[in-house]
TrEMBL record:
Stretches of the chain forming a coiled coil according to its record: none
Organism in which the protein naturally occurs: Collybiopsis confluens
Compositional bias ranges of the Basic and acidic residues kind: 1-12
Segments traversing the membrane: 40-60
Protein name: Alpha/beta hydrolase fold-3 domain-containing protein
Region spans: Disordered: 1-22
GO molecular function: hydrolase activity
Length: 405
């Protein structure tokens, strides 16, 4: 591990500029979605060229090299994946942030389109520890006080929660209702790069859980769900419960004696931030189909930039020492991790599960989706209000449903 840590340290600033509170010095110019006139011109040129790029990709998509399980997906879905790869390759982080907008604002627009009442809990920033932005709990449907899912969305700690996440959970909520199960769903809109780094997001997640406790939720009635970077954040929470960080950095989170969370599910968790190539060949071998951009390596470096060596295993879950999660059964009742067979993150997730989770939790399962790419079911809700015969979706819905029985 020492070699890996040194490689991370080489990409970071000198210790004189290191902060452990998640803020960065001289960061006035680093703003979410900052745009210049040249940025607008560049975005226009990207979308003008898009039809030609898609045409070239369409010719390649019929190649025998494409795995059969992926080729069997609906054409509409495969076209979307091609567009996503093109957009991530062509646009800058700021341009994508500008086009997406802040998560809580996107939520307001989505609820208006869906004719739902917006329900937002504003969680005040932890100014004593250097946070300057509020986070928000965005409720899908009304608040409930008996059963709830706390969802930590994806985005590489760089992109905000987007419409497809809202639609995904609204679909799930309505499907469970048909089976007689009413579930509250609270989505945490947390701060992202370049305005916030570790451990800001962990503090905000802890604040969200404490908020649910104050509302009257028992830990056993809470299921935690995190996708991609949200999955990484999920394991940050578990690490902090098992091995508390100093209170000056992150407030403590203690479960009542004998209590544990009802379940934890993570789709395509980003568990190897510092060097995704070292865990196997999938990061490079799967680049031609997966929607994860190569710049996720830069996102990881930026997120870890100010993390002291002593805290790396919190921010980068796969770096945890042996038996780091050995007492995880005291924290959560059951665990499901899913990964796509065609994902760049496939190998790191398998290594993480086999080394850190499987030996210590008997109710932990790894589900590999054949033909699946990064956050596969979630992507379908960009272009559809219902899943497109996605084989993973019903398994996830059933697993979560069973956890509330």
């Amino acid at each position: 591990m020492n070699t890996r840590i040194e490689r991370i340290r080489d990409t970071q600033s000198h210790s004189s500029t290191m902060l452990t509170n998640g803020a960065t010095q001289n960061n006035d110019k680093a703003k979410f979605g900052a745009m210049s006139w040249s940025s607008y011109v560049h975005m226009a040129s990207v979308f003008i060229y898009m039809p030609f790029a898609l045409a070239l990709k369409a010719l390649w998509s019929n190649s025998p090299a494409v795995p059969r399980a992926y080729a069997a997906k609906p054409l509409k879905r495969r076209i979307f994946d091609t567009i996503a790869r093109y957009v991530f390759y062509s646009l800058s982080d700021s341009e994508i942030q500008w086009a997406s907008g802040r998560g809580h604002i996107a939520y307001q627009l989505w609820t208006k389109r869906c004719k739902l009442e917006p329900v937002v809990d504003t969680l005040q920033s932890d100014s004593e520890r250097g946070d300057s932005q509020n986070s928000h709990l965005l409720w899908i449907g009304p608040r409930r006080t008996d059963k709830v899912i706390l969802y930590l969305p994806p985005g590489g700690f760089c992109l905000p929660v987007m419409d497809n996440a809202f639609q995904y959970w609204r679909y799930a909520q309505l499907e469970w209702k048909k089976q007689g199960l009413d579930v509250g769903i609270a989505i945490l809109s947390y701060s992202v790069l370049p305005e916030a780094v570790f451990p800001t997001q962990l503090r905000q997640a802890i604040g969200a859980i404490e908020h649910l406790f104050r509302m009257g939720y028992d830990p056993s009635s809470i299921q935690l769900v995190g996708d991609s970077a949200g999955g990484s954040l999920l394991f940050q929470i578990f690490s902090h419960i098992l091995h508390p960080l100093p209170p000056r950095d992150v407030p403590s989170l203690k479960l009542p004696p004998g209590k544990r969370f009802g379940g934890a599910y993570t789709m395509s968790p980003w568990v190897g931030l510092s060097d995704p190539e070292q865990w196997g060949g999938s990061f490079n071998a799967k680049a031609y189909l997966d929607v994860v951009p190569a710049r996720i390596k830069a996102w990881g470096r930026s997120y870890l930039r100010y993390v002291p060596e002593s805290q790396l295993c919190y921010a980068d879950p796969i770096l945890g020492p042996e038996a780091w999660y050995s007492e995880l059964t005291d924290v959560v009742d059951r665990i499901l991790i899913s990964i796509g067979a065609e994902e760049r993150l496939h190998d790191q997730v398998v290594v993480f599960f086999e080394k850190h989770i499987k030996p210590y939790h008997k109710a932990a399962t790894l589900e590999v989706q054949e033909g699946g790419v990064h956050c596969d079911p979630l992507s379908e809700f960009v272009i559809s209000n219902v899943p497109m015969d996605n084989p993973l979706m019903p398994k996830v819905l059933y697993w979560i449903w069973k956890g509330f029985q």
